[in-house]
Amino acid sequence: MNHFQLKDGVLHADEIPLPRLAEAYGTPLFVYSTATLKRHWKVLDRSLKGLKHLVCYAIKANSNLAILRTFAELGSGFDIVSGGELYRVLQAGGQAKKVVYSGVGKRDDEIAFALEAGVKVLDVESAAELARVSIVARRLGKRAPIALRVNPAVDPKTHPYIATGLKESKFGVSMEDALRLYTLAARDPALEVKGVALHIGSQITETGPFTEAIRRTLELVGALRGQGIRIGHFDVGGGLGIQYRDEAPPHPDEYGAAVKQALASFDGEVLLEPGRVLVGNAGVLVTQVLYTKRNGRRNFVVVDAAMTDLVRPAFYGAHHEIEPVVPVEDAKPVVADVVGPVCESSDFLGKKRALPPLEPGDLLCVRSAGAYGFAMSSNYNTRTRAAEVLVEGDEALLARRRETLQDLVRGESPSPRPRRFTKRAVRVESQSRAPRRRKA
Ligand SMILES: *Cc1c(COP(=O)(O)O)cnc(C)c1O
After folding, report:
1. Ligand 1 centroid from CA 204, angstroms
2. How would you classify the pairing of strands 191-197 and 144-149?
3. For labelling, which of 90, 116, 318, 403 has a CA lying 20 to 30 Å from the CA of 133?
């Protein structure tokens, strides 16, 4: 379900024909539907009705400020993975007290930023990080709200690059380590144990892995209660998949019902960290045909969007539907690879696609580009990044202007001033050990 539909033979975003947007803002262009964004958030929120819960949008999927503001206005919380993302949430009017901070590699300055801002919780992913958080909190005279991200060792049955809860993935801590670390944390006056967190992967298309991960983590919660450690919230992470092609992921209602049932015995707050499911099908990428060509037996449609705009096909072998913005009836289809201008053979948006015969200037719509699209874009080949537009009814908001050539060289100089480093011994300092644990 989305608001990108054919009307009078032309693909529209809500009520605006995509060619009008392409004309006004140029291509490649990301177009997002406000109505779709809002509906997705509300459907997921409603799926947990009756349970004390907070939907924390995982902003790495699409961190445009206008999108964050849209969710913030619905009362959303946010899941972040860097200080940069915290900055974005605050810029967009999000509340720090609804922010969950995840990630395996938080720096001291990021931990300090989060504590100063007053985030809801830091999801700690290792013993070493727990020690750092304690040190930074003490330095600031604060108590750090923490949860441990546990690794329930569940196979989410997704692409290996987006499976994050396997026993040997870099994320989270094992159940055994968690028990020990919670005990340490509960005794540390600079730490306040708030909850438990997990996140087993992305683009998961069945409920089984989620409920199994919850079940395993509830055993830990029970064991902790036995030791007098109260777990106030249970964060089930994100990862619910969407339909790109012929996947049949559970409807959010089904997912919500499964989560509710799995957590029936849990009496605290439930947190969700959805990313893709909220924004993926709320966005498309509009691109223009530059050339068509044939090499050997293979046809190519060269378009002005590239892996620098949408890296998922190159990165994960992901499939995105590609269709003409103005479909031609009864056209004999041509099977072609849709490729970008970047100097890499992995620079394709789609392979072996049946498309009508195309001419330079024709517009194509790449579907399901709202998640991990712009957010993963780059300036490789010194390409300006695309503009982003948010559509609501017959109105469009330019949520990010197209980059300019000046943007591309900002911070660089052809002849930077040299800085001399005088000879001096390098001071080596261990960062990993907490001084308080050193025995005198
Ligand atoms: C990426 C991520 C999410 C969101 O994943 P989706 O598959 O987009 O829902 C949630 N939580 C954490 C910790 C993440 O790293």
Report:
1. 11
2. parallel
3. 90
**Count helices and strands in the chain by DSSP H and E runs:** 12, 20
Pocket test for ligand 1, best of 54, 60, 151, 236 (most atoms within 8 A of CB): 60
Segment 7-16 mean pLDDT:
97
The domains of the chain, with CATH numbers, are 4-14+21-27+281-409 (2.40.37.10), 34-278 (3.20.20.10)
The mean per-residue pLDDT over the stretch 377-399 comes to: 98
Cα(192)–Cα(408) distance, integer angstroms? 44
At 431 the pLDDT is 59
Tokens of 264: 């029936």
| Annotation: binding site | 239, 273-276, 312, 316, 344, 372
Please count the other Cβ atoms lying within 10 Å of the Cβ belonging to residue 10.
16
Distance between terminal CA atoms of the chain?
A: 64
Active site residue 365: no
**Under a CB-based contact definition with an 8 Å cutoff, are residues 281 and 243 in contact?**
yes
Which of 101, 99, 109 is CA-nearest to residue 132? 109
Q: What is the pLDDT of residues 173-185, one digit of tens each?
A: 999 999 999 999 9
Average pLDDT over residues 321-339: 95
Instruction: Give percent of the chain with pLDDT exceeding 90.
Output: 90
Q: Which of ligand 1's atoms lies nearest the C-alpha of 123? A: 13
| Peptide bond just before 156 cis, omega within 30 deg | no
Alpha-carbon span 135 to 423, nearest angstrom = 32
Mean pLDDT, range 11-29, rounded to an integer: 98
Is 0.90 topped by the overall pTM? yes
Helix pair angle (252-262, 208-226), 10° resolution? 30
> Sign of dihedral through CA atoms 47, 48, 53, 56?
negative
* 61 C-alpha to ligand 1 centroid (Å): 8
Q: Name every protein residue with a CB atom under 6 angstroms from any ligand 1 atom.
A: 58, 60-61, 79, 81, 102, 199, 202, 237-240, 273-277
Residue type present at position 376:
M
Catalytic residue among 1, 343, 405, 428, which?
343
